[in-house]
Amino acid sequence: MSFFDSEAFDNHEEVAYFSDAETGLKAIIAVHSTTLGPAVGGCRMWRYDDDAAALRDALRLSRGMTYKNAIADVGFGGGKAVIIADQSMKTPEMMQAFGRAVAKIGGRYYTAEDVGISPTDIGEVSKETEFVAGLEHTSGDPSPFTALGTFVGIQASVKHLTGSDSLEGKRVAVQGVGHVGYYLCEHLKKAGAELMICDINQSYLDRVVENLGATVVGIDEIYDQDVDIYAPCALGATINANTLPRLKAKIVAGCANNQLATPEMDQALTDAGILYAPDYVINAGGIINISFERDGYCADKATEKVERIYHTLSDIYQRASKENTPTGIQADRLAREILAKG
Ligand code: NAD
């Protein structure tokens, strides 16, 4: 199978490899689409098993950003970068070398934080290129906005199933109470929900228990909880053939990226009578916030647009019900329709 014909390639506009012997930088920048604007997507640093795995990840993530940004209506295309390295190899000089790589893409790709890359790292990148988003002094930490979008997405999901978006007395299993998960718990608690939480970090668990009140459950037990909503807010691929039959929740709605281990899980969730909030739709609050950097940042305007995720998800659910298709497929269709209109 040739590279251009592979499923992961999916008509990427541009894929570039960069290396810098002095700093040890090895990076791939993938620009899937600039149809709706310059590609915006984070940079991930990961110790990949091999270069092929890094390329696959870059392509898959960059295509995902095209779809996420299209539905979020932010005027951005989709792209992503990966740096092939262990965290221990990271230096300011390496991040600056990555900045020079981003500069060479000439504004068709803007970079930001992702797994393994902090705001400080992006600060180093910005010494070499203007094509960065999400700097601390501009729109700041995206997590509270991602959490707000996830919260209104949960409300829209409950409304779709029950006719009311009240979360009073609803039981929610939150898997991962890090940056986004904690803010999400705050919203849920305020709305009267009961929290079941898990995390591998004890201090994060303590923070939720002490400040908000929650029942802590084991890392693996989270799937077996007798809850209304399962909110994955840690890792990807937690919906898989092993976990799905264990879920008692009627709604899967959380901020984690790539929640479905395989595309088939979309149909499997529908078959199991579980409403799935497509991950890249419900977790778009952060990128929506970043998009307000362009015309002079305004938190109120960003908040208002993030809250529209409620309606976007409701539309997707209605289309899915009407056409009897899984919600993930409907989200992909909607994204492709938006892209086709340009
Ligand atoms: P984070 O690292 O702050 O939080 C993740 C939490 O999950 C951590 O507390 C970690 O200890 C915990 N965790 C790790 N492994 C776990 C396990 N096996 N079981 C339970 N908990 C575990 O990250 P974050 O910024 O809060 O992002 C959470 C998820 O949301 C990620 O998948 C991220 O890609 C996605 N996301 C985040 C944003 C954002 O604005 N931060 C935007 C879009 C999507």
TrEMBL record:
<dbReference type="Pfam" id="PF02812">
    <property type="entry name" value="ELFV_dehydrog_N"/>
</dbReference>
<feature type="domain" description="Glutamate/phenylalanine/leucine/valine/L-tryptophan dehydrogenase C-terminal">
    <location>
        <begin position="140"/>
        <end position="342"/>
    </location>
</feature>
<dbReference type="Pfam" id="PF00208">
    <property type="entry name" value="ELFV_dehydrog"/>
</dbReference>
<keyword id="KW-0560">Oxidoreductase</keyword>
<comment type="function">
    <text>Catalyzes the reversible oxidative deamination of glutamate to alpha-ketoglutarate and ammonia.</text>
</comment>
<dbReference type="InterPro" id="IPR006096">
    <property type="entry name" value="Glu/Leu/Phe/Val/Trp_DH_C"/>
</dbReference>
<keyword id="KW-0520">NAD</keyword>
<dbReference type="InterPro" id="IPR016211">
    <property type="entry name" value="Glu/Phe/Leu/Val/Trp_DH_bac/arc"/>
</dbReference>
<comment type="similarity">
    <text>Belongs to the Glu/Leu/Phe/Val dehydrogenases family.</text>
</comment>
<dbReference type="InterPro" id="IPR006095">
    <property type="entry name" value="Glu/Leu/Phe/Val/Trp_DH"/>
</dbReference>
<dbReference type="InterPro" id="IPR006097">
    <property type="entry name" value="Glu/Leu/Phe/Val/Trp_DH_dimer"/>
</dbReference>
<dbReference type="InterPro" id="IPR046346">
    <property type="entry name" value="Aminoacid_DH-like_N_sf"/>
</dbReference>
<protein>
    <submittedName>
        <fullName>Leu/Phe/Val dehydrogenase</fullName>
    </submittedName>
</protein>
<dbReference type="InterPro" id="IPR036291">
    <property type="entry name" value="NAD(P)-bd_dom_sf"/>
</dbReference>
